């Protein structure tokens, strides 16, 4: 986290030094599914925002994603809210088309589009960003290695059997008499343990940033 913050600060310094003071703000367009919003998504948005001043993010609808890619885990209203919560995002455009068009970008006065260095295609194999590439209004950011929505879904699928076993264990514990739960640190239930951590006001202030 500290490395990312330092990297962001350095990028900001370089961009600030190269930007003239009196000019029109640079508006950047990013679009995507943002399903199971994770730090890879956030890092892409961070990089995109560093290329301009105002970040507009188009989020595809459930129907549009299912047509070109497959069903989502999160509903579109949840994905809109997740993207809006990211600190680098200035404006969210719901129901953005899967194919990025110059007309949509122009309607939000965006100078160029930013996407990761991976290939994104429509259901017919067409490059989603071909139009903006041809117009010279396409920029790339580095994709974050080791994280993706597909990979996260794969993790959950592998955990399914153990998850159900754990759920059954919790149910059996809940059916027992409450006296089995101890307030003593020496006795613990199969699923819980006593925490002796008391957050002080000083500790809360340290993490409040």
**Major sheet, described briefly?**
5 strands, parallel
* Residues in helix, %: 40-55%
* Residues in β-strands, percent: 5-15%
Strand order of the largest sheet: 3-2-1-4-5
Distance between the termini: 13 Å
Number of helices: 8
Helix/sheet category: alpha/beta
Radius of gyration: 23 Å
The coarse silhouette is: globular
Residue-averaged pLDDT = 80
The count of β-strands is: 5
Strand and helix order: HEHEHHEHEHEHH
Uncertain stretches of 5 or more adjacent residues: 177-197
Written description of the protein model:
This protein is α/β, with parallel strands linked by helices. 43% of the residues lie in helices and 12% in strands. This is 2805_t:CDS:1. It comes from Cetraspora pellucida.
Describe the secondary-structure layout.
Elements: H1 2-18, E1 27-32, H2 39-50, E2 54-59, H3 62-68, H4 76-84, E3 91-94, H5 102-107, E4 112-116, H6 130-134, E5 138-141, H7 149-174, H8 201-207
Parallel strand pairs: 1-2, 1-4, 2-3, 4-5
Task: Kindly summarize this structure in a few lines.
43% of the residues lie in helices and 12% in strands. With 209 residues, the chain is an alpha/beta fold. The protein has a five-stranded parallel β-sheet with strand order 3-2-1-4-5.
């Amino acid at each position: 986290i500290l490395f990312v913050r330092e990297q962001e600060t350095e990028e900001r310094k370089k961009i600030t030094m190269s930007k003239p003071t009196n000019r029109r703000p640079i508006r950047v367009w990013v679009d995507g599914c943002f399903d199971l919003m994770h730090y890879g998504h956030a890092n892409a948005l961070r990089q995109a925002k560093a290329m301009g001043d105002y970040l507009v993010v188009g989020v595809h609808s459930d129907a549009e994603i299912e047509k070109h890619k497959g069903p989502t885990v999160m509903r579109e209203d949840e994905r809109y809210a997740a993207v809006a919560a990211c600190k680098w995002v200035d404006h969210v455009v719901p129901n953005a088309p899967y194919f990025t068009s110059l007309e949509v970008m122009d309607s939000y006065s965006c100078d160029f589009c930013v996407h990761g260095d991976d290939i994104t295609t429509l259901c017919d194999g067409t490059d989603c960003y071909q139009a903006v590439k041809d117009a010279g209004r396409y920029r790339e950011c580095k994709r974050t290695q080791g994280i993706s929505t597909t990979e996260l879904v794969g993790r959950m699928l592998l955990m399914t059997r153990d998850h159900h076993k754990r759920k059954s264990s919790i149910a059996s514990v809940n059916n027992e008499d409450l006296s089995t739960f101890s307030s003593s640190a020496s006795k613990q239930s199969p699923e819980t343990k006593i925490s002796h951590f008391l957050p002080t006001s000083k500790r809360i202030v340290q993490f409040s940033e």
